[in-house]
Amino acid sequence: MSTLHVKMSSEQSQITHVIFDMDGLLLDTERLYTVIYEEIFQEHGIPEYTWELKQKLMGRKEIESAQIVIRETGMNITPEEWIRLLNHKSQEVFPAAELMPGAEKLVCHLFKHKIPIAVATGSPSALFELKTKRHSDFFKLFHHIVCTGDDPEVKHGKPAPDPYLVALHRFGGDIPPTDKVLVFEDAINGVLSAHAAGMKVILVPDPRLDQTKAKDANLILSSLKDFVPEDWGLPPYSSAVC
């Protein structure tokens, strides 16, 4: 997938705060989700876990995803039963999750330069702890984590703007205008969420994504490794790491 650059004016690109999605963006968990879903589908006689269905689920609250799966497949199971089954299988798979290419370099760079950073993930808090078990030091670099799956302040998951607006206000102090906030996402639902919140958004998608659906993204990158901080008014990379 080629990198698509979108020209930004100098005024537009003065970013002061950065918020990250997690699954498929910081952690290689979307691939693991596919493994788990395919196994459950096979056990219930569902022929295929399609890319089209996966796109509908990415970034949503846990219960919302469960409802969509059941509606789309006709699976004879309740949303609560689906969540229990998913969580059971997750115990074996998610602790092995690796960081995505470029994630550590970018996050450490922003932390080093005191750029306020946060995470807004669709995962509930218990699942977040499971996925990040091997990377606790990395996630301590963030000012805060919003687990929209069970955060009481997040009334609606992505593609609604709630996750990113809640994440923004938890920085505290002088909250910047939303157009000074840069979001990193891997899914269309997340792009829609950030755009609805009035924020700039960079999409780092699965190569299978139809990029014509990503018109609300300000930039599309093949990898976090391709991000150029100074294009957004952020300090350029140096050789030092945190």
UniProtKB/TrEMBL annotation:
Record's protein name: pseudouridine 5'-phosphatase
InterPro entries: HAD-like_sf, HAD-SF_hydro_IA, HAD_2, HAD_sf, PGP-like_dom2
GO terms, molecular function: metal ion binding; pseudouridine 5'-phosphatase activity
Keywords for the protein's UniProt record, in alphabetical order: Hydrolase, Magnesium, Metal-binding
Reactions listed under catalytic activity: psi-UMP + H2O = pseudouridine + phosphate
PANTHER family, per database record: 2-DEOXYGLUCOSE-6-PHOSPHATE PHOSPHATASE 2, PSEUDOURIDINE-5'-PHOSPHATASE
Signal peptide as annotated in the record: none
Co-factor(s): Mg(2+)
Source organism phylogeny: Eukaryota, Metazoa, Echinodermata, Eleutherozoa, Asterozoa
Entry's family note: Belongs to the HAD-like hydrolase superfamily. CbbY/CbbZ/Gph/YieH family.
Native organism: Acanthaster planci
EC category name: hydrolase
Catalytic activity, EC: 3.1.3.96
